[in-house]
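Aim 2 progress update. The chain analyzed this quarter is reproduced below.
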Amino acid sequence: MSNQCGERLSSARVGSIVLLLALVHTSALPFDEAHEQREPPAFRSGSTSHWPRVNARTRLHFDVDASLAGHSFTPSFLGTNLPLYAPTRKLQSDALPLLKPAGMRLWRWPGGSNGNYWCPTLSGQKWDACFEDAPIFKRYGAYPTSEASLHLSAFIALCKRSGCTPIVQINSGIAIKYGVAACVAYAVPMVQMFLDAGIDLKYLEFGNEMYGTWSPPYGVDGLVYGGGEYGRAFSDFRHRVKARFSGRDLQFGLVVNTDQPGFCTQNNICNWNEHILSHSSAGSEAEWLVVHRYFSDWGEQAMLDGTILQSGPQGLDHIVGTLHQWWGSRLGRPPPPVALTEYSSIFMRSQACGAAQQYISFLWQTKFIGDAVARSGSIVAMNHFAAFSRHRACVTWGAGRKRAPSDSYSIYSVGGGELGAADGTPFPLYYAFLLWNLYGGNTLHSSRTNGHTTVYVTSWTVRTCGVPSCNDEVLGTRVSGATCLELIHAKQRQRGGRLAEVDACRQVAREHPRSCGGGLPDRP
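Predicted structure tokens:
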């Protein structure tokens, strides 16, 4: 990484940092004008090397047009699922201290399939009251609810303490099986609990992967439904809940898939999007769309890492493009913003495991976040799946598995695991979020890919210059009887206020490089 001080982007005074992020073909390398790229070690899956051969003396050059409008980088790109089955005690003692520095404050609860087979109610003895009114959901393993689970009241307490932005899943199966009124009857008290706790709940997600026959209550007792039934339930539920909270800006997420017209498999409900758009008004009423995507090989012919995230049926451009086709052809308008409320970007088809597999997944994850911001403007939020997942040893899986192991999803150790990592141990994938939180800035510019590598330039509107000094902890460092920020302001006063803050910062950084500069260069 090389940091730059005082650069101007779009006429705004900003500090900027160039992030050299490997596309998934290469390893992450430090980058500076005079830094020479080394050849990464060869990594093989089967008999084919997935690493490009790069001469040790090769230099890469990138063009970033800072005059073009950048893409907004918001905290909504750093989110995670906090699933119901996560042990509350472990989350409180180990997970939360790690989530905060990584900027992961967009929390989705109850996380994954829990959102459509669990009946959340209030607390204490009323934990499972919903199951008595909707007994079909007793069949899915979440009944009775364990006292150690991350129940609604526990989630609200953690969210309030950490300043989270919650996405709350509503069990849409209740609306389809027992009627919308029954679903509203349990959802309204849930919303009210957040408001009573002082949390401005805004985002409600209506169901979980309802387009799949694996999602309850499809097929139980002969129950069959499609996009039309789901869409009409969504609209009715949305109108009723909005009426109960007329002074609140509640926004409702509609669950869609990214299948092309006519695509149908045995475990996907056929014509899901088409029936939502043609048999209900949900497509024009939803404030945002819910999409899930796991960037991995699910037992098909092994795909090279470089193709999965960039293009093809799994890529971000495909997701956004397909939804634009659906909404454009059926409604004559673009779709609402898209949120990936479940995703994981992992490299599965390889001989790598443990730290090596996690490191490759870290590269994918880092690139994926950058691409989501820089290439797909319609994507507004993402939630990694999941904050709680046990890390497993290499021997428990292999290249022939159809689904990646749990260690692909782990960002830190919670609740033990086969590797025996202490609770609260960050795994390589965690650092992708940490780096973006530290260096994501306000605006993101990206270069064209060069030699399987992309440069992202992020910018800030700042009080001072340079990435290290943007950290309040550094600004508050005491040196020579004053803090770094006080020294900067003193420099400005010495010049009668004519010295720009960015220039004062540069002078203080040169005079106190260890305390206030963090090694800032003399020149931009």
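The two ends are 14 Å apart (CA to CA). The chain has a mean pLDDT of 75. These observations will guide the mutagenesis experiments scheduled for the next reporting period.
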